[in-house]
Design goal:
This protein has 13 helices and five strands. The chain is mainly alpha-helical. It folds into two domains: 148 residues, Arc Repressor Mutant, subunit A (Orthogonal Bundle), CATH 1.10.10.10; 60 residues, no CATH class. The strands form two sheets. Strands 1-3-2 form a three-stranded antiparallel beta sheet, with helices on one face.
Length: 274
């Protein structure tokens, strides 16, 4: 006696069948509906359907359907991704073995229409494993179903994604407010003053500095005093030759200078006297 009985999918839409008392909400009732309902496809146990659609087809409220499906799920008899609206019965193919590789090839259109998701990938891998046990011809027929599509996917994945062109950063404005420019210049001057500096190699006293020398020390020759001042400070090594204010240093130098080199020394009136 045969172990299997055929149930036509159209049974669920048959007029006389629908006039019968409905299947009460239960795990068993849902299981038979999942196996034989109008949602099923040529691919054993893999089909697209949503919770609300199946509940409506059975005449159950949503809560009753969810409870029944939970029973089936807990037994490992069904898996679902209701967000993608995909349902899979893992053991269905074991009880609906394809008769030939040509039957497997006929699954192509059905599989292409199923939504892409992790559950679909898991189902295809499981079906491939089962078909490999039936022989290479069955497996090759199934693998060739998505060969072109897989190749395209692989090519797309292998193609380097174009790097987004970096957005040019906005150029800082070169125009500054007058107050800002004055503040920046003042800060630079103050920084230089705080750090100090060496006397420039070609330094020469300004008009005001020369006038100070003439007024403060009329006995000095400003030009020769400047030469001695410059030669002395340029010869100082390291920090000794660094000053914060060279104008003040010049004034102190002038005050402390002994006498002008240009002014001849007074003759000793007693020179030559024995």
């Amino acid at each position: 006696m045969s172990r299997y009985r055929k149930i036509e999918v159209r049974t669920w839409s048959d007029e006389k069948f629908r006039e019968l008392s409905p299947v009460p909400p239960s795990g068993q009732g849902l299981w038979f509906f999942l196996l034989t309902g109008p949602h099923t496809t040529a691919v054993p146990g893999l089909f697209r359907s949503g919770r609300a659609a199946m509940a409506e087809e059975l005449g159950w409220d949503q809560e009753a359907f969810d409870k029944a499906f939970q029973e089936v799920f807990d037994k490992g008899m069904a898996k679902a991704d209701f967000k993608a609206r995909l349902v899979w019965l893992p053991n269905a193919i074991r009880h609906n073995k394809p008769e030939s590789p040509n039957v497997v090839k006929s699954w192509r259109a059905e599989i292409d229409l199923l939504p892409e998701c992790a559950l679909k990938k898991e189902a295809i891998e499981s079906i491939s494993l089962y078909l490999s046990k039936l022989g290479d011809s069955f497996l090759n027929a199934f693998v060739n179903i998505g060969l072109d599509k897989e190749s395209e996917c692989c090519e797309d994945k292998n193609k380097p994604s174009p790097k987004p062109s970096p957005k040019p950063s906005p150029k800082p404005s070169t125009k500054a407010m007058p107050n800002q420019e004055q503040e920046q210049e003042q800060e630079i001057v103050e920084a230089k003053q705080q750090r100090g500096s060496r006397l420039p190699a070609y330094w020469f006293p300004s008009e005001s500095e020369i006038q100070f020398c003439k007024t403060e020390r009329p006995d000095l020759d400003p030009a020769k005093t400047a030469d001695r001042f410059r030669d002395y400070w340029l010869a100082q090594p390291g920090a000794k030759g660094v000053k914060l204010d060279w104008t003040a240093t010049w004034r102190n130098w002038v005050r402390n200078e002994t006498r002008s080199a240009s002014q001849p020394a007074k003759k000793n009136q007693f020179a030559g006297i024995v």
